[in-house]
Amino acid sequence: MRINQKQNMNKIKAFALIINLLISVAAFSFLVSAPISDSVNPGGTGTSTETKGITTTPPAVTGTTSTTTTAGGITKIGGPIIPPGTGVIPTSGPGGTSTGDDTIIVGGDDSSGGDTGGDTGGDTGGDTGGGDDGVTPPPPGGGGGGDVWGDISKLNMASMLTKVSVSMGIFGSLGGALGGEEGAKWGAVAGAVGGIVSGLLEPVVGEPMASLVGIGIAALIFILTYRKKSIEITEFYCLPWQATIGGEDCELCNSLEECSEYSCKSLGQACEIINEGTENQKCAWINPHDVKSPIITFREVSEDHIFKPYTSTRPPSTGVYIKPKNMECIKAFFPLEFTFTTNEPAQCKIDYKLKTDYESMEYYVGGNTFFIYNHTEKLSLPGASAMNASNPELKNDGEYTLFIRCIDGNGNYNQDAYSVSFCVEKGPDTTPPVIVDFNIPSDSPVQYNQSELDLEVYVNEPSNCKWSREDKSYDLMEGEMQCDTEVWEMNNRNVYTCKTTLTGIKDRQENSYYIKCKDQPWAKEGDRNTNVQSYEYVVIGTQPLNIIDTKPSGEMADSTRVVAVFLEIITDNGYKNGEARCYYYNDRYNSPPSREEDYVLFLETNSNKHKQRQDLPRGNYTYFFKCVDLGGNADYNSTSFSVRIDRQPPIITRIYKEAGELKLILNEKGDCSYSNTDCNFEIDDGISMYTLDEEIHTTNWEVNKNYYIRCKDKYENQPNPNSCSMIIRPVEISTDDREDGWDWGVEI
């Protein structure tokens, strides 16, 4: 399994880290425990060595001294002879006696000799040091610094570092073996602390007891800090709610004011309406004494595959065996699909393991919880080689058996699970991976000025995939993808996901990308299969979307209390010459929406012309529009208008004779007709008056005839039945102004 390979690599890194720590500690231990040599040749050869401006001359002859005075009055004396009264501090030997050709520093005065001698004596080897001949002797240890360095010298730093090294190695190795890199780190820390504690306690309690205490403390720290690294996969499913099994609560519906079919069936899977549509309509538990489980009948399987009764089951009617028509085993990662039916509405589950009851089974058939007759399952299974390479602990021979149980509304399920058996090819995988789908279909548009696209590629088997702007071999492709490479990483669509970001998208043109995949990430390079032919994926760059016209505007009127107003939009450009989905928003304050989700989709949309009816009372309105095309381009606009309620019929404002015709003018657009008998007629049945603009209406002028005129506007406002808009009668009148003494007029 690939994850085991990763863990092994982490362990190797952890062990390398431990080895580096051990080498570092050993080197440091060597430096600390190495003998410190002064700038004097131990053999006393008489050679003079110069250090930082201080010259030291070793004695040439035993029993004599050779001195050199240095800056500050400090004299270095070589040899074992200690002149009386010089304030010389022995550097080593019992009782303060110098042994060997040590370098001895004497002070030019009492104070410098005492301080220097004390420090030197404490530093290099004695608990005893002091001055002579009137010089105040320092305290035991040779002065203030002698106690500290003397105690540290008792700790035996070399021994402590050895314990630290060994303890770090033991507990680091243990942690690496159990917990990988993190375990090695905390194991080494625990070992280091234990080694330090052991070294500190050794001068006090002795080496055996100190070692036991150190090991105990290291073990305690390791136990408290150790955490084994593991991976768990948690799957979440959102499934439709289903009513409870049975029908014990069906009667509760009958106590409701209205017991609908929905209310009835929500109380139990076995609840149904009886006497529907009558006064005795009730909700009842249908067949409460039903004890028969659903009967499963296998119906069909994927193309070029067959199924037959599986004789290994008892009885054979409770299972089938599936195989391809021309071979024994199904190809690895083939999307196998099969359908079966039940003799009554049932909910079905499927599992790879034979469980004892229905509830303990793992998966719903088809991924749904509905109680239905037809059930379809689709799955894609790896071959034995893929399973065994992915998880060496799970030896798979390519043989699979799926177990199915179905439950009815009364809780009855088949005790003997229905089995579906088949085998998957055991041999090596010789077919390249297949790209099944994309999260965004090819030839889809993207938003204007969008130069990148996050893409998911779905492959039928674990693979590594790449992409390029040119069709080239897999190894030369530049674009990398992050892919699911483990067999168990199959998603709910039975495919494996590769993610990437396509770059370099250009506007107003098609952008082609070429994709290839290589399967079996766990296999040797020579055993892997690569796509020879690229999958071409096309992204369409677009341009901005525009709303070029909105309606209505101005005043809208009708004779009803609520006026039908039609919102209309025309869009252009964007994707496919303005093809888009449009939305609208309005509130009582005529203010714009605060959230994008507040917009409401037009009823007539998904083209470049969009229409929505609104029934509005009298008032002033502002509507806000948003249109979005498939590429995500959006445009916003608004329109304002008023709604007026017109319930009055048109009024004749003027009537006269012109060019031998009777003419009348209305205060609004409308239609007029007349009768020479009375007002009791329908306007559409009367004699129509001629009009061009629906405001000026004309007809023939006939003297001494009554014209019973009725008019209506475009909202069908008109006089009451048997009522006229106006009754007129053309007459001939006399006048002194005309030569013939006659003129014309009307009587109203």
Which stretches are low in confidence, meaning pLDDT under 50 for 5 or more residues running?
A: 25-149, 391-395
Q: Can you give the helix content as a percent range? A: 10-25%
Gap from first CA to last CA: 106 Å
Strand content: 25-35%
Shape: elongated
Main sheet characteristics: 8 strands, mixed
Q: What is the average per-residue confidence, as pLDDT, rounded to a whole number? A: 79
> What structural category arises from helix and sheet content?
alpha+beta
- Rg, please? 52 Å
Helical segment tally? 7
Molecular structure report:
- The protein is an alpha+beta fold.
- It contains seven helices and 41 strands.
- The strands form ten sheets. Strands 8, 9, 10, 11, 12, 13, 14 and 15 form an eight-stranded mixed beta sheet that branches.
- A hairpin with a 2-residue loop joins strand 33 and strand 34.
Features of this protein?
five-stranded mixed β-sheet; elongated; alpha+beta; 7 helices; 33% strand; 748 residues
Question: What's a quick, concise take on this entry?
Answer:
The chain is of the alpha+beta class and 748 residues long.
Topology:
Layout: H1 2-33, E1 49-51, E2 54-56, E3 66-69, E4 75-78, E5 103-106, H2 110-124, H3 144-154, H4 157-205, H5 207-225, H6 261-265, E6 271-274, E7 282-285, E8 296-301, E9 305-309, E10 319-324, E11 335-351, E12 363-364, E13 372-380, H7 384-390, E14 399-407, E15 418-423, E16 435-438, E17 444-445, E18 452-459, E19 463-468, E20 479-480, E21 482-483, E22 496-503, E23 510-519, E24 535-540, E25 545-551, E26 554-558, E27 563-573, E28 581-585, E29 600-601, E30 609-616, E31 619-628, E32 634-645, E33 652-658, E34 661-666, E35 670-675, E36 687-688, E37 690-691, E38 696-700, E39 707-713, E40 726-734, E41 742-747
Parallel strand pairs: 10-15, 17-24, 26-32
Antiparallel strand pairs: 1-2, 3-4, 4-5, 6-7, 8-11, 9-10, 11-12, 11-13, 11-14, 14-15, 16-18, 18-22, 19-20, 19-23, 21-22, 23-24, 25-27, 27-30, 28-29, 28-31, 31-32, 33-34, 34-38, 35-36, 35-39, 37-38, 39-40, 40-41
Helix pairs in contact: 1-4, 2-3, 4-5
